[in-house]
Amino acid sequence: MADTAYDLVVIGGGPAGYAAAIRAGQLGKKVACVEMERPGGTCLNWGCIPSKALLKAAETYETIQHADKLGFNVGEVTFDFDKIIQRSRGVSDQMAKGIEFLFKKNKVDYISGVGQVSAPGMVEITDGEDKGAILTASKILIATGCKARTLPGVDVDGENIFTSREALVMKKQPKSIVIVGAGAIGVEFAFFLKTLGTEVHLVEMLPQILPHEDKDTATALQRSFKKKKLKTYTGTKVENIKKTEGGVSLELVKGDKRTPLEVEALLLSIGIVPNMEGLLSSRVKLKEDRGYLVVNENYETNVKGIYGAGDIIGPPWLAHVATYEAVQAVNGMFGHGTPKKVTLFPSCTYCQPQVASVGMTEQMVKEKGIDYKVGKFPFTASGKAVAIDSSEGFVKVITDAQHGEILGAHIIGHDATELIGEYALAIHSELTGEDIHDTIHAHPTLSEANMEAVASVFGEAIHI
Amino acid sequence: MADTAYDLVVIGGGPAGYAAAIRAGQLGKKVACVEMERPGGTCLNWGCIPSKALLKAAETYETIQHADKLGFNVGEVTFDFDKIIQRSRGVSDQMAKGIEFLFKKNKVDYISGVGQVSAPGMVEITDGEDKGAILTASKILIATGCKARTLPGVDVDGENIFTSREALVMKKQPKSIVIVGAGAIGVEFAFFLKTLGTEVHLVEMLPQILPHEDKDTATALQRSFKKKKLKTYTGTKVENIKKTEGGVSLELVKGDKRTPLEVEALLLSIGIVPNMEGLLSSRVKLKEDRGYLVVNENYETNVKGIYGAGDIIGPPWLAHVATYEAVQAVNGMFGHGTPKKVTLFPSCTYCQPQVASVGMTEQMVKEKGIDYKVGKFPFTASGKAVAIDSSEGFVKVITDAQHGEILGAHIIGHDATELIGEYALAIHSELTGEDIHDTIHAHPTLSEANMEAVASVFGEAIHI
Asked: Is the predicted ipTM greater than 0.85, yes or no?
């Protein structure tokens, strides 16, 4: 890679970085994207995408196991755990190649290596294939993202102890596992492994699984997991993690009570930490807050010309938020509109039943002292849900009591992660519950539940 | 059933009728619903709902057949066709009981029998369990719907020749079938039977299957069917239908060419005709147009106090439209707002890949001479679609070139019928493409394709 001058050098090729590079390319800018592994970042290679392939396998197994109810006689069913893992890697490979194709299409120079901001306007490749290259750029966007948090003294060996990254390439299915942390990642692995037959202990320090979700959907999911004999522990810590001959020993700590447990494997899904190591030379000082880059309303750091977007600028650590921020940052730096900051975003967990939300939880609305109303529609009352044998869950919507504005929506059920889109658009566009109620929804669809939930706020739901 | 005076008597217990009755009950009105079969009407008992249960079976079979790709080894798979049919009946039974429950909850008197408007303000039960009862009502709503159209000289025997109604309770799976008419019903039965192994010939008189859909989605579906070896014939008529010993003989007529064909079964899915028989006594004359009731902007017929809603007032003959009309009519007649007429509604076909649309097709926009733009996003570029092994299809959106208003959206693919909801809300609320583009969509979801399709109108889609 010849040394050259760019309009923009992006460090990091994940959902923020690759989107930023492509967007700059669309705007006709000379742009390079520096990535130390391969395009796609954690999301595409070690997160959202391969995990969805694994979950598809689990769903398929559930479908086959329940097929007799639908009229099918299936002989003995076995599965090849390695093949399931390998398919998920294949999906990541395919999508990563897609990003490389998009780079070419949009004339993005893909630089393979570790990027360091050696000075404002200058990025040095300090390791990897293109080591030694020095890129000059009028603007630099840092989008190096985050990596899984680990615990001091706990050796993530990829054999018995994993973060999500190692868990995505498990060499064999563990007979038993403790999953520490019941956010989306922990919950998804719990569902995946339990469905395939692993004994799963899902442990959350906070009072509910999916701690950021509305209490109603989180509680409903916990109940659903209980039916599946997937053990959940809330308000519980994991301590004294030790490797044993056959796996891992640990203690579950709830209040004064300590319960020892021996399992084959342990997954740490306890959050993430920013990828800042080696990113800045000693000459470059960027303002940080708890390890995350601090940016202004234009996504610019305290140093002119150096921008940040995605996980590296802090929560909510979601791929779709990262992409949005990156595109906004690039639009802004090249005069294509005023950048917007993120105020509203959906959250999704892809176990079955799925959990999805957008806007405020009922707990948040209460805390803010807003006068609100709640509408709820159960999928048991949905003809489509019953017809497709997926009637678990409900849609819950929270509206402002005075103006009818939609404050939050919380869905648990089949396809919740697709259904939430309508509410995201509604809240973003400041529509009222009445707008959704007055929109004709196709029958029979699960999306009718969105409409009926809102109708129930007014006591006008037809099917409950 | 004692003779009694009602605020409203509804004739017909389908998606228009039962919704009207429930809505009137919610408004505290004394209401009766007269139904000659059982609550739910064609949709719930002989249409939308049981067909979705059958389609779920077909999808399950496809899932099992492709499970090896996902890592599963499945032994020999067989199915019990009768069990598949019976499950679909069970779903209808369950939902019909649900309507009866809702009637009780909303204090709706359920009258079992054939209702006749014997005079304005008077409904007589001319047949059925409650025969002889005479109901007086200040208002009457006619919601008797439609039934399948048949062909003169073709005997629908339920053995070899069916309309959708008989086909939903087929006694055995036919080895081969000609389906006459490739609207949603014909297409859904074609997919269902073909997936389970029937040789299917799907014949459409008009130039494309799904004649009301955008040409792009219809053509894509036809191509998908071809890959499945499901034979489609467009611009083709079926003539000389005759019963034979083993089934049915007929001729496919395309232009001058006549091709004889012998099959085991024939399904007529060539539209519907209004249920007007015996509905009105000779004293009651209601204005009709081609057999359908003519109503004004308040859903009132030419006779004061007699209203109509649903299929009986004409196209588009969709359950969700019928329900909407019925609720509007009831709200209006009891002073709960000004009734709205239907201008925008989604259309859905639940084969795989699904087809869904809302608003104008590109052909309609062209005919109107509107200056428009098209955005398109293929599911092959969607990480979620690839991860769940369902990357067939695309989202196509048509926007006004000048103002960016969304004119129509057309989706073919997995979950298209759920994804269309977002566009329905957008068009209904007069949002622009920019509103959808600027809404953060959860990653990875299929709904991102809605956003990227709109972004592609501006040349700003990231993933294509």
From this structure: yes
